[in-house]
Structures are given as structure tokens and as C-alpha cells.
Amino acid sequence: MVLLKLFCILLVIHHGESIRCYQCTSDDGTDSCGVYGKFDTDRHVPVECQGDEAVTPGTMCIKITQQSPRGFIWDGRWRQVIRRCTSVANTGVTGVCNWGIYENGVYWEECYCSEDSCNSARRIESFHVVTSFISTIILYYGFTLFY
């Protein structure tokens, strides 16, 4: 049981290290940020979120997608993708995507994650969120049952 507690503590401490996220925006007029095609991880290098290269310092990654309300991509509708570091998730939870529609009809989606380079995917799936949650439960109940 002591080894299990030590493992859980080390797992939680690991999350305190600085995270690395991809950083790009589709505002430059190219598809380098994966707006319509696959995001090319070979062209981009993840930046350290607490470092000088990060446009927005933070402790997690975010991928933001916005799309105009017109019917088809080919009829003039625009789409924008932003990948970067962030410090606060609007929901307070990482590993999830939230979406909605602004009053002007623009669709938006924000996906948060807390693993290195995790904002490269189309949708964010986070294994460490689950392991952190389980570790916290084990630590809590482990300490309350035996002390």
C-alpha cells in the first residue's frame, strides 16, 4: 500500500512540470495550423508554456476552432484554428471540448488538455486527466481509511 501511495504522489508531482504545446494560428492565410487539412506536427515544434517563446503563458494547452455560419466551405464561409498555451479553462476541467454558437452565428469550439503536445489532434483526448483523478481518489481514500 505504501508503494501505491508513493506512485500516486509521484504521478501528481509530474503534472507540476512545465507543459509544452503547439502554437499557431490560421490568420496568416495558409493552412499551416490544420484548418482544412491535417495538422503537420513535423512543421511545428511545441513551445514550453512557461518559456519566452509562448505567446500566451500557461499550464495547459488549448485548440480553438471558429467557423462562419454560411452553408458550405466552398461558398465563402471561413474557418479559423488557433493552437496555444492557456492558463484557465472556462469549465475548470481539462481533457474536454466545449462548443457553442455566438449571436452572430459563428460556431466555436474550445478543447483543453494537459499533456505535452496534446493540442495537435482534431479532438482532445487526455489520458492524464483520468489518471490524475484516479490518483487523487486513491490518495484521499487511502489516507482516510488508514489514518
Automatic annotation (TrEMBL):
GO biological process, one term: regulation of synaptic transmission, cholinergic
Keywords: Glycoprotein, GPI-anchor, Lipoprotein, Membrane, Signal
Secretion signal span: 1-18
Main location: membrane
Membrane topology term: Lipid-anchor; GPI-anchor
Annotated Gene Ontology cellular component terms: side of membrane
UniProt cross-references to Pfam families, sorted A to Z: QVR
Record localization: Membrane
Superkingdom in the source lineage: Eukaryota
Protein name: Protein sleepless
